[in-house]
Amino acid sequence: MSKPVSIISKNFYNINPDSIDDYIAAGGFEALKKAVAMKPEEIIDIFDRSDLQGRGGAAFSVAKKWTHALRVPAPIKGIMCNADEGEPGTFKDRALLEHNPFGVIEGMVIGAYVGGGSQMNHARIYIREEYSYLHARMKNAIRQSEEMGFLGKNILGTGLNIEMKVVSGAGAYVCGESSALLESTEGKAGRPRIKPPRLNNVGLYNLPTLLNNVESYSIVPILVSDDSEYRSHGTEKSIGTKMISVSGKVQKPGVYEIPFGTTIREVVYDIAGGPSSKLPLKFVQIGGASGAIVPAKELDTPISYEGLAEIGVAVGSGAIVVADESNSMLDYFESLAHFFAHESCGKCTPCREGNRQLVRIVEHMKSGNATSADFQRLSGILKHMKGSSFCGLGKTEPAPFLSAIKHFEDEIKGYFK
Amino acid sequence: MEKVSIKIDGISVEVPKASTVLQAARSIGINIPTLCYLEGVNKTGACRMCLVEIEGERGLQTSCTLPVKEDMSVITRSRRIREARKENMQLILANHNSDCLSCSKNTSCELQKLCEDLGMSGELMRMQGQKPVDDRSPSIVRDPSKCILCGRCIAVCKNVQGIGVLSVAERGLDTEILPAFGNSFEEAPCIFCGQCINACPTAALTEKSEIDKVWEALEDNDLHVVVQVAPAVRAALGEEFGMPIGTSVTRQMYTSLRMLGFDKVFDTNFAADLTILEEGTELLERIKSGGKLPMITSCSPGWIRYIEIYHPDLLEHVSSCKSPQQMMGSVLKTYYAQLNDLDPKKIFSVSVMPCTAKKYEASKEEMAGDHGRDVDAVLTTRELARMIKEASLDFVSLEPSDADEIFGDYTGAGVIFGATGGVMEAAIRTVADILEGAEIDEIEYEAVRGLEGVKEASVAVGGLTVKVAVAHGTDNARKLLGLIREGKGDYHFIEVMACPGGCVNGGGQPYVFPFEREKYNVKQLRAGALYKEDAELPLRKSHLNPSVQKLYSDFLGKPGSHKSHELLHTSYRKRNQF
Amino acid sequence: MLKPLNSKVEENCPKLYKNVVDAVGKLGNRRDNLIAVLLNVQSVSSRNYISKEAMLAVSEIMGIPAQEVYEVATFYHAISTEPRGRFLVQLCRGTSCTVNNSVNVKDSLEAELGIKIGSTTPDGIFTFEYTPCFGACDVSPAMRLNGRIMGNLTHEKIRHIISKCREVAENE
C-alpha cells in the first residue's frame, strides 16, 4: 500500500505559512546559511548527485542549468521563478505557494548565491493571475524575509544583493514558456522570444537570467540542508520524490508527494482513494494538457523518468487526470483543442493555423461530419506542429492527440466517416 | 571581417561571422523561401517558411534568425523540409482569401509566387467565412482576409518610419493586425505614407482605388478630363511592364495617358517649378524679415500629417506653399480654364502620383476654392498601370510623344523633386541665382543627393552662407526636429520627404519583391533616372521656365502675390493622435 | 518614442483619469508595471473592463505608446476591452473539469442565468464565459465568480450562488 511522503511538503499544514518565525523554527533558512559557507560548485554537486530535474515540465537538469549560470558571470542578473502553472490538471505549485512560500524564496536566494549577479539580482516570482489570492501571501513572505536580512542588501554578510518582487500574470498559459514569461514580466504581450540567445545569456531586461519552477526552488533548500532522506526514495534513474496533482475520476483529488517509482495504479488506488466511479477506468493523462494519454492497461507503469519513457511518456508537470469509460475521447479532444486554440499566442503559422484547423476538425467530429480527409489532415497538422512550431506550446501540443490516436485508434477513427 | 566556414547542402562556404544561415545560403544562390523576413526591417521567425535542418541537432530551425557557427552543417533540402514547407503553406492558405484572379496583387503577390516556387499542387486548403474590409480612409485599405500576419507592416511603420500606428491585437486564432482600437487609418495617427503597403507581401494592404472614378470621368463626354503626372512616376512605371528598375519612360507615359482618353496630358514638374518660385520667394522673405527659420518644405502630405500630429509645436516652420499637385490643380481650374474658355466645373482634374498620401491631400477640405476641388482624383503609379493594362495597351511598344503645352513644360529642377534632396537642389538653384544676382553655372549639389538619412549642405551666395538640411523617412525628420527644438537646428531651409528615399520610393510605386530589393538599390536606380533626365534638359532652373514666367505675367502677378496666396498657399493645424 | 498624447481623457473622464493616476502612483510608473496597472484600473471600473479612454490615459501617464497598451490589453484573457457584467462567471473547460462533466454545470448555469455561455445578461448583471483551467481541479467542476473560486458545483450550489449575486446587485 503506497503512501505519500512529506519531504518537499514537510511544512504543509505544520506551520503558519504567513510566519517567517514558524518557518525558521522548522529549520527554515538553515540551508541558506549552510550554502553561503560553501562553494557554488559544491552546491551544484548536491543537485547532481540527486540528478535533480527541473519540475516545471521541461525536466532540464538543475545542476546543468546552475552550472551554465555560474559560467556567465555578470554584475547584474535576473532570477526568475515560474509560478505560472497553467498546465490543466496541475495545481501542485499552488500548494507550494500556499503552504511553503518561504521555501521558494530560500531556493531563489541560494540560486542567486550560486549563479547570480555579483552586484545585484532582480528576482521575480511570476504568479498566474488565477492564483491572485496567493499573491499577498508571497508578498508578505518577501517583506518578512527582507526584514530578517534574507533578501535585500548584503545578505548574510556575503555581499549578495537581491531585490525581489511578485509579478502577476493576466491569463495566458503561453506565459509559462520561459521567454514568454520574461516578456510578460517586462510588461509586454507574452509572445516567446527568438532563441538563440538563450535566457541564461540574455533574459530578464536582457540580463543573464536563472529561471526555475516553484517546485524546483522549493527542493533546493531541502537538498542543501540534508539530502539523505530525499535520496532514500525513488528509483535508480529517478532519485527522490515528486509533487503530483491528481484529479478527475478519483475519490480524493489533491496534491501529493510521491517517491519516484510509485506506479500510476498505486497513485489512483492507494493515494487518491481509488476511482470515484463504478465504471472501469479508461485512461489517464500525465503531465498536463500537453502530456500523453495513457490507456488503463498501462496503469502499472512506474512514475519515473525512465519508467514513463518506456511507454513513450514524459513526467511533465506531474499532473494526473483520471478518466473512466464514460469519458469519450471526443469530449477530451474538444477540451484540449479549445484550450490550445485559446492559449496559442498566434505568432507562428503552425500553431496558430494548426489550432484553427484542429478546432474545425473537432467540430466536424462532434457534428458527425468528419471525413477521412479530415483525419489525414489532422495527422499532417499534428506532425507539422510538432516539428515546426516556434515554441514548446505548439511543439508539445500534439502529444495527447497522437497518443490518443495510437491507443484509441478505433474509437477515434470511428468519428471520421 | 571575421569569417566562419560552414557547409550548406554539402557545399562548403565561408561567410561573415555575423551572418544568419539564411544570408549564408542566399550568398551561394540558395534562396531559402521566406515570407515574414524583410532584410533590415523584420526578423521574427514567425512564418516558419525558412526552416532548415542542422546536422546533429533535433528539430527544424528558422534560418532567418539562426546565426552561423563554425563547422555548422546546414540542410536546406530534404524530404522533411519540402513536406514541412508545403504543409506550412497549406495552413497559411487555409486562412487566406485565395481569390487571386480578382486580386489587385495578382502576379505581384509574394504568397502566390511562393506557391509557384514550392510546386503547390492538388487540392489546396481554402479560407472559410469572410472578414470585412476596412476601406474607411482615403488612402489605405486593409483587407484582413488576405493578411498572413507576417508583421512586416508593423515593423516598417515602427522601426523604419519611427511611428508605429499598427498593433497586433488579441492573440491566437483571433490575432489581427490593425490600427489600435480598431480605428480607421484616418482616425489613427497614420500619415498615409503607404510604406506599409510597400512592405505587404499580399493585398492585405493596398491603396484606396480611384480607378473607377477616373474611368467614369473619362467616359463622360460632358467632362474635360486633364491629367498631371508626378516626376517619380516616370522613373518606375516601366517596371509594371517588365522594364528594368530605373528605366525612364516619360514620353511613352504621355502617350499611354492620351490613349486612355485624357483630353490633356500635363506634367506635375511644371508645378514643381512653380512651387520653387513661390517657396523660394517665401524663404528669402523669411530670411530678410526675420521670419521663422528654418523653413521646412511642404510638398509631402505624409510629412505634413506627421508634423501636424506628432510635432504640432513646430508647425510655424512649415512653408505655406501647397504641394505641386495641389498648385497644379488650382491653376488648371483657373488660369487654364480661362485660357481655353472652359467652365471649371466641367474640368475633371486627375493626378498620377507615386504616393498614397496624395489621395488624402486631394480630399482635404482646404484643397479647393470657388473653382471646385483642386484635384478630383489621384491615381497611384500602380493604378495607372492597371488602367493601361485594362485598356489593352502594349506599353512597351507605344510611340513616345510630348506633354501638352504650358502645363507640360518643365525644367530639370522640376524633375528631380521625386528624389530625396531634389526639392532642395531645385530650390538652391533658384535661390542662389537670386541672392547672387547672377546665373550660376555649377548647379549640381551633390551634398544633398543620396540616401543618407540626414544630409547637410552650406552654400555661400550673395554674401550669405545658406545652410540647408534634407531628411527622408519620418524617423530622420524626427531627428532634425529634435535639433530644432534644442536650438541646434541653425539651418535656413529643410527638405523633408515622408518616404525613405523620397517619392521614388513612395507608397504608390510599383511593388518590388524583397529579393529584388536585396539585389538592386531601387531608390538609387529610380532616382538616377530623374537625375539623368535633369542633366539632359536644356533648362535646369525653375525660374527659367518660360511657361511659369507666363503664368505670373498673365495671371498671378508675382510670387507671393495676393492671387498666389489665394490659389497656391494653404495652412496647417494641430491634429490629435486619437 | 513620440511625444505624449495630449488626449482629452483627463478633461472628459476625470474620475477614470484619477483611477489611472492612483494605480500608477501605487504600483510604480515603470513599463514592467503595465499589466498590473491595467488589472488594477479594470478592477475599479464599474463594468469590469478597460475602456479605450482608460488605455489612452495609461498611455499618457506611463509614457507608453497607445498602440502598445492596446496590444497588451487585448492579449491577456484576464483583461477585457469590452464592458462586462457586474458578476463575471467563468466556467472551467479544462481537462479535469471536462472529465467531471462540467457540461452539466454549463447547462445548469445557462438555465439559471437565462443566457448562453459566451454572453452577458441584458440587465448587465452577469457575464458568463468559458475560461481555461485555473488550477482548482481538486474541486472540479469549478467556476470563478469575479475571480473567486467556487468548486464542487452542483445544481443546488449554483442556484444558491446566482440568487445571492442577484440580491447583491439589487441592493446596489
Rg over alpha carbons of chain B = 25 Å
Q: How far from one another are the termini of chain B?
A: 48 Å
Strand content of chain B: 5-15%
Average the pLDDT over all residues of chain B and give the rounded result. Answer: 97
Which stretches of chain B are low in confidence, meaning pLDDT under 50 for 5 or more residues running? Answer: none
Major β-sheet strand ordering of chain A: 3-4-2-1-5
Number of helices of chain A: 18
Tell the overall outline of chain A: globular
Radius of gyration of chain A: 22 Å
Mean pLDDT of chain A: 97
Tell me the number of strands of chain B: 19
Number of strands of chain A: 10
Helix-and-strand structural type of chain A: alpha/beta
**N-to-C span of chain A:** 46 Å
Shape summary of chain B = globular
The two chains with the largest interface, and their residue counts, are: A-C, 53 and 40 residues
Helix-residue proportion of chain B: 25-40%
Protein architecture, described:
- The complex is a heterotrimer of chains A (417), B (578) and C (172).
- Chain A is built from 18 helices and 10 strands.
- Chain A starts with 19 loop residues before the first helix and ends with a helix.
- Chain A has 417 residues and is an alpha/beta fold.
- Chain B contains 20 helices and 19 strands.
- Chain B has helices at residues 21-27, 79-93, 110-118, 152-160, 195-199, 211-218, 231-234, 250-260, 268-289, 301-310, 324-339, 357-363, 381-390, 412-415, 422-436, 474-485, 514-519, 522-536, 546-556, 562-568; strands spanning 3-8, 11-16, 51-54, 60-62, 73-75, 140-142, 166-169, 176-179, 205-207, 224-229, 264-267, 295-296, 347-353, 368-369, 372-373, 377-380, 454-461, 464-472, 493-497.
- In chain B, the strands form 6 sheets. Chain B has a 5-stranded mixed β-sheet with strand order 2-1-5-3-4, with helices on both faces. A 4-stranded parallel β-sheet of chain B has the order 11-10-13-16, with helices on both faces. A 4-stranded mixed β-sheet of chain B has the order 12-19-18-17, with helices on both faces.
- In chain B, helix 9 (268-289) crosses helix 11 (324-339).
- Chain B is globular.
- Chain B starts with a strand and ends in a 10-residue tail after the last helix.
- Chain C has 172 residues and is an alpha+beta fold.
- Chain C contains 8 helices and 5 strands, in the order αααααβααββββα.
- A 5-stranded mixed β-sheet of chain C has the order 2-3-1-4-5, with helices on one face.
- The radius of gyration of chain C is 18 Å and the shape is elongated.
- The N and C termini of chain C lie far apart (44 Å).
